[in-house]
Amino acid sequence: MILNQVKSLGANLIGIMPGATEKDGPPASVMGINITTLTYEDARALLDKKKNSHLLDLVAYTKSIGLVSWQSNQYSTNLSGCTAGYPAVEGGEVEAGRFFTSEEERNLSRVAVLGSTAKRELFGDNPALGEKIKIRRHVFEVIGVMAERGKVAMQDYDDQVFLPLKTMQKLIAGVDHLGLIRAKVDNAQNLNQAMADMTAILRERHGIIDQSGATDDFSVRSAAEAVDMITQVTDGLRFFLAAMAALSLVVGGIGIMNIMLINVAERTREIGLRQALGATRLDIFRQFIFEAVAITFAGGAIGAAIGILISFLAALAIGHFGYQWDFIVSGYSIVLALAVTSLTGLVFGFYPAAKASRLEPVAALRHE
């Protein structure tokens, strides 16, 4: 799900993050380390068309979480301080009003644009344009409302209040550095050249002489690289979970086989009596193989139900901490799980069933 969402962001996007990074690892800032090496002036320098000819536009961010109030209504939401290029780069559409301009951004104007969720939570069905909202004792005028966009890669684009970047830095966050710069390139084929141009500009601004990247205090990543990184992680996780599932099935299958062998031993007289009454070896085999499959099928159904419940509770817990995670139940996965558990019963129940079917009626009836 996350992989598809990241792909949907666009193949011509580049992310510039503060902090160095290993070649195959995430940037330091992604790991929760506060890095202050990217500034507003860096973002302005990247807009130089002479040095960065393939750049269409960029948006720089400083983000936080805060309480927003209107009259008696209060709502805690994501505060996104950004530059005026947000709609062009991120593809956001303004449903009502307008987005703030570069001039308002430079002048530290106290204006705000609401995401659709933030607007609904604060204003309900009431119009928001022209109204005054308060964030940390500062009053902002609502000049726009964004169209509903939904959730992408655990980020809710609708549950946000957008403020001019420098206003956010000075009045709300109290910082002078950036958390992220996202740039849009004219063509996906020019990504590598654009990344090289941006890297050169930032190295020059930061006084970095080493061109190998070993001393870079920033990270430049394309959306394609993000997809590759997520693919590697998901492939590794998928292999690990498959190995754990296979091991669990083997261990569970051995347990089923032992239970069925004990069952055969305890029901030897019953088997002999059925044979004396006309049951064939095939009838005895079918009886015990059916019991083994029934046990594993019931176990699979209970396990699937518990897994669905845990997934639902996990989605609720993740949402409680401010992240977005859709709860999705795949019918194919449930059918596959039940089929595999039934096959496990069939495989590991074969030997006990065959042993039961080979018992001699006379010896079985004499068994104590």
Summarize this structure as a short list of keywords or feature phrases.
12 strands, 6-stranded mixed β-barrel, 368 residues, 2 domains, alpha+beta, 20% strand
Kindly describe this structure.
It is a single chain. The protein has 368 residues and is α+β, with helices and mostly antiparallel strands. The protein folds into 2 domains: 2-221, no CATH class; 267-366, no CATH class. 49% of the residues lie in helices and 20% in strands. The chain contains 13 helices and 12 strands. It has helices spanning 2-8, 40-46, 86-90, 102-106, 116-123, 165-173, 191-206, 223-266, 268-276, 281-320, 331-348, 350-357, 361-366, and strands at 13-18, 55-70, 73-82, 94-97, 111-114, 132-135, 138-146, 151-152, 155-156, 160-164, 180-185, 218-222. The strands form 2 sheets. Strands 2-3-10-5-7-6 form a 6-stranded mixed barrel. Helix 8 (223-266) runs antiparallel to helix 10. The protein is elongated, with a radius of gyration of 31 Å. It starts with a helix and ends with a helix. The model has no long low-confidence stretch (mean pLDDT 85).
